[in-house]
Design goal:
The structure holds 2 protein chains of 2 kinds. Chain A is globular. Chain A is 39% helix and 13% strand. The longest helix of chain A is centred in the last third of the chain and has 24 residues. In chain A, helix 2 packs antiparallel against helix 3 and helix 11 crosses helix 13. Chain A contains 17 helices and 11 strands. Chain B has 3 helices and 2 strands. In chain B, a hairpin with a 2-residue loop joins strand 1 and strand 2. Chain B starts with 5 loop residues before the first helix and ends in a 7-residue tail after the last strand. The chains are: A alpha/beta, B mainly alpha. Chains A and B meet through helix 11, helix 12, helix 13 and helix 14 of A and helix 1 and helix 2 of B.
């Protein structure tokens, strides 16, 4: 039986070059697996489009590392003439008339789109359950009790279960890096502005990043090399000179300085995670890294998540104001224009998303603007300054990606903010506040579920993040993880 | 401390042109009271009086593209996803009462 699809991108590429497998064979297996998926990973399986793409593959591009490689795309990336819903009823039936830049760069390389994947509605969530098709499950848990997390739930699930070796997502508050921890994947969010966001349905643009899942660190490096770089259609995309990461990645971390933020480490509840993390720290030290324990005032740590909710809620309430069913999307009529728009938006959005946007609307009210919204912007600036101060004397910040293994689904609607949350659950947002490169990779298992750790580096210093990640992957040997049933 | 009550939340939601169910308003009250309390605690940070609001993660400079005319979307493309079209325009209920 052909198991090339269970390999890493680099391994599949070798097999393609040596004619051990063809793109058509890979795509047929990927489509078959997609159709048999029981984790609710897909909004749309692009069977017709995938078979057309593979039939028109340009043999001259065979040396491209992503040539013939199947991938999935989170359904908040625009794909011309292919449904794009943001996992929201308000966009039912919508087919964009243009491609997002990320999608265009991938298909220009010869990569093949297998499908559009589920997400928490319009990116606003972290449980993988608020999309209009319901819960997306964690392939590591056959009982479907544990989340894979979100908002990039479908891409995480499809990459984890071996349908594809590459799942594209987006990350506004940890939406790739937390599911990566839950699913035993490499989840990479490069520096803000390094990858074009043209055609990505915006949630909160000052925090939104293109990010993605692979099953190895080197795969992550090669994907970055393809996606990075200036796009004139995204004014925030960088014009900086680019680095070739795959050619330059090394696991040599001798003399490099690692910062561990003690307040965040101490808030990890799960002792197996904490113990495993500390063991990896010892192993990184044995490879020559210098470990520095640093402090971030707990009062500041406690402000991370409320600040995020304020800023993301405000931006999303503005961004989603154009979703009214008139030019596109699913429209519900009314006697008046206002009634029509209100009917459309009341029914089209989930309660959860409406709550997030209402928080945003509340903080933007004239009487609240300075004391809540502007204050949150200042707190963000303060937090970012503190993080950059830590990185002035260190090369990387290293922490557990989460406080615990993948949570169990809770069907009771609850507030998203409470005293029960820990900073270890929310610290990955620091990478969004500061726009810094941040990568999660697996470091262990507890009760049969994987968990990960996270490296965060200086702006545009992806190579250091990748070097540390490769060193850690070599230490743990945890690479290309998939639940056994898939192999 | 900022006032948060259901009336203000309903008004906010209506301004955003949607409505929520009662359970959502209850949850929102809890969430916003929490947020307001946390933001109040932040008033003790003296550094906030000397720091500017952050809009983007870093300063963006000189990134405007050249002012070159491009071909816009055709009328057909623009109307492709609209559900109610007449005479090349999108039809909606009367706006002016």
């Amino acid at each position: 039986m052909n198991n090339y699809l269970d390999m890493t991108i680099l391994e599949i590429h070798e097999a393609l070059l040596n004619n051990k497998v063809t793109p058509l064979e890979l795509v047929k297996i990927a489509l078959s697996r997609a159709k048999q998926d029981t984790n609710n990973a897909f909004e749309y399986i692009s069977e017709k489009e995938a078979l057309e793409m593979v039939a028109h593959l340009d043999e001259a591009k065979k040396n491209n590392l992503l040539w013939g490689i199947p991938f999935v795309l989170k359904d908040n990336f625009s794909t011309k003439d292919i449904p794009t819903t943001g996992s929201s009823n308000i966009l039912n039936g919508y087919k964009p008339v243009f491609n997002s830049e990320v999608y265009q760069r991938l298909i220009d390389q010869g990569a093949i789109l297998i499908g559009k994947t589920t997400l928490d509605e319009l990116g606003m969530g972290g449980t993988g359950s608020s999309g209009h098709l319901g819960k997306t499950f964690n392939p590591w848990d056959k009982k479907h009790q544990h989340q894979v997390g979100g908002s990039s739930c479908g891409s995480a699930s499809a990459t984890c279960s071996g349908i594809v070796p590459l799942g594209i997502g987006s990350d506004t508050g940890d939406s790739v890096r937390k599911p990566a921890s839950n699913a035993g994947l490499v989840g990479f969010k490069p520096t803000w502005g390094l990858i074009s966001r043209y055609g990505l349905i915006p949630f909160a643009q000052s925090l939104d990043h293109v990010a993605y899942f692979t099953r190895s660190v080197k795969d992550s490096a090669l994907v970055l090399d393809i996606l990075q770089g200036r796009d004139e259609k995204d004014a925030t995309s960088t014009s900086k000179t680019l680095v070739n990461h795959l050619d330059n990645i090394t696991s040599n971390i001798n003399g490099k300085r690692i910062a561990v933020i003690d307040e965040i480490l101490e808030s990890v509840n799960n002792q197996t995670i904490k113990g495993t993390f500390l063991n990896t720290l010892d192993a990184l030290k044995a490879k020559g890294a210098i470990i520095n324990h640093v402090s971030l005032d707990k009062k500041i740590c406690d402000l991370i998540y409320p600040t995020y909710i304020i800023l993301s809620g405000a931006e999303s309430s503005s961004n989603n104001a154009n979703l009214n069913g008139i030019s596109f999307g699913s429209r519900i009529d009314g006697k008046t224009y206002e009634e029509m728009v209100k009917n459309t938006r009341t029914t089209g959005f989930s309660e959860k998303s409406k709550r997030r946007m209402t928080i945003g609307g509340f903080v933007l009210r004239k009487e609240n603007y300075d004391e809540l919204y502007v204050k949150a912007q200042k707190i963000r600036h303060l937090i970012v300054n503190k993080v950059n101060e830590i990185l002035k004397d260190n090369d990387i910040i290293y922490l557990p990606a989460s406080s615990d293994i993948a949570p169990i689904f809770d069907d009771v609607e609850k507030p998203i903010l409470s005293n029960k949350q820990t900073v270890a659950d929310n610290h990955l947002v620091l990478g969004n506040f500061a726009g810094l490169p941040s990568l999660t990779l697996p470091i262990g298992f507890d009760k049969g579920l994987p968990f990960g750790a996270n490296f965060m580096g200086k702006a545009f210093d992806e190579i250091t993040v990748l070097d540390f990640s490769l060193a850690l992957e070599d230490i743990t040997g945890l690479k290309n993880l998939q639940p056994k049933e898939n192999k | 401390m900022k006032k948060v009550d259901k009336a203000i939340l309903k008004d906010t939601a209506n301004k955003l042109l949607f409505d929520l169910n009662d359970e959502s308003y209850d949850i929102l009250l809890d969430e916003l009271n929490f947020i307001v309390a946390e933001m109040d605690k932040a008033s003790s940070f003296t550094e906030l009086s000397n720091i500017s609001p952050m809009v983007f993660p870093y300063e963006i400079e000189g990134q405007l593209k050249e002012d070159v005319a491009i071909t816009p979307l055709s009328r057909e493309e623009v109307l492709k996803n609209a559900s109610d079209i007449q005479d090349g325009q999108i039809r909606i209920p009367k706006v002016i009462k």
